[in-house]
Each structure stands twice: as C-alpha cells, then as structure tokens.
Amino acid sequence: MKHAAQTALTLLAAAAMLAGCASARKALTPSASKTIEVAPPEPGAPKPTAGMDWTYAPVGTNAALTYGAAGGQPKLLLACAQKSGSVTVGEPGAAAAVNRITLISGSAKATVLAGAQPSPSDPSQMVLSAKFSTLDPIMQAFAHRRWIALPLEGDKVDNLVAHPEGAVAVREFFDFCG
To answer: What pTM did the predictor assign?
Structure first.
C-alpha cells in the first residue's frame, strides 16, 4: 500500500511540476495536431473562471491533468498511466486532518478516503491523494461535463470549469487513461 501511495505521489509531483511550467502549459493545451469535438456546456452549467483552466501533459506512458492558473499552484491534479483505467486525484494544500477528497460534477458526487503526505516539491505542503476508476460515476461525469467542483465551507463550492481549450485537455486526458 505504501508503494502505491508513493507511486501516486510521484505522478502527482510530476503533474505539479508540469503545471508550473507556463511554456509546457501553452505547448500541451490543446493538442494542435488533433481535432477533437467537445460538446457545448450544458444549460445551467457553471462558467469558467478567467485565468484558470485545465492543462493536459502527457509524458511517455503517464499523463497529468491539472487545474489552475498558468505558472501557479494547481488546485487539483489528476494523473494516470496510459490505458490503465485508473486515475489518481491529488488536492494540494488540503488539510491533512480531513483525510478525504470530495468531488462533485452535476448530480454525481464522490467522497473517498485519501492519504496525506508531504509534497515532494514542497515538504511543508500536504497533498491528499486518492485513486478512482475512470468508470466511477464521478469520473464519467467529469469527463462528460468538463467541470468538477470541490466543496468549500457551508454550501459553497469551487467550480473547476474548463474553457474550450481546457475541455480538449480533459477529453485527451481521459482518452489517454482509458
């Protein structure tokens, strides 16, 4: 179990490093060599936040999908091995005492136990991580809707909504993960 947690954390660390590179962000989102159709947002869907988007970064047989501002700390990290059908989700800066990750997309909601470990890139920062199947309802909803929400205090949520380029990044990530 500890080996799996370290592997997941390594993938998430790679995702964080790639997300921090503004040049990597620009080069990898979206893939200029592909034409991918993305469904329009559903009526009533949350709107994208200016300056924030999803970024896809394939590296060999692994890939990362991060949400945040170019060059900034990502709010959410997803990582997978090619065609694995499994996604590791990491939430940097989350309180280690929480020990769970909650994701919401439309009517789909998942709360799972998460492991907390210091970030390899910044040991003073904790990262919560948990594994999901790409077939889990929350991952299916996110892949389809291109947005996911993290709960905040009370009834508030932080909507992580893809702009058109980010929607392509989400689609390419889930295609890669299988």
So the answer is: 0.80
